[in-house]
Amino acid sequence: YMKDVGLWIDSSDFPKYGKNKLSRKSDQWSFKLNGPGQRFQFLQNANCEVVHIWGGYSPKVNDQSWMNLMREWFQQHCTTVSIIGDCHYRVSIPKVKIITPMPNPANKKNTDSVGIKQLTKEQQAKNKEIREVRSRVERVFGILDTKFAALSKPFAEGDEQQNNLVKYACAVLNFEKK
């Protein structure tokens, strides 16, 4: 079924200046960064080219909630291709196929998993295959941080400028792949 995957989705937080001035309760606080930041969603193709970027927005908005907010966009643009993401993208959007790993039954909080302690061998194999395919999306974040040092350090020039830099950096990476 992995041959059907056409797009990868994941989010990344980029740091902002002001760690000493900000409460952890602030909408700008990123627990991924342990400091202020902005979250961006990246939709990529199999060549690790960024197809679409959303952001920046509050890192307090989790990926599942974001997907539910964006369901109409995905229904309009992604009905002919499968999207692979991590467990945070486990949402049901009519006519959109989203492939995510199977959660560990021992971590479930409902009564359906009583007595089940681990995934089947088939489910474990599927999750391994998904992890291997998904590793490509993380590669782009590493390249962005390395190639554009301003994205890996607290950014002081404001949200709009950081938004522009993320989009510019992705455009440069896409251009270099051509």
Q: How would you sum up this structure, described in words?
A:
The chain is of the alpha/beta class. The chain contains four helices and six strands, in the order ββββααββαα. It has helices spanning 63-69, 71-77, 121-147, 159-177, and strands at 5-15, 29-30, 35-45, 50-57, 82-84, 97-99. Strands 1, 2, 3, 4, 5 and 6 form a six-stranded mixed sheet that branches. The longest helix has 27 residues, at 121-147. The chain is globular and about 50 Å long. The mean pLDDT is 88.
Nutshell version of this structure?
The chain is an alpha/beta fold and 178 residues long. The protein contains 4 helices and 6 strands. The mean pLDDT is 88.
Descriptive tags:
globular, alpha/beta, 21% strand, 4 helices, six-stranded mixed sheet
**Count of alpha and pi helical runs:** 4
Order of helices and strands: EEEEHHEEHH
Mass-distribution shape:
globular
How big a fraction of the residues is strand?
Answer: 15-25%
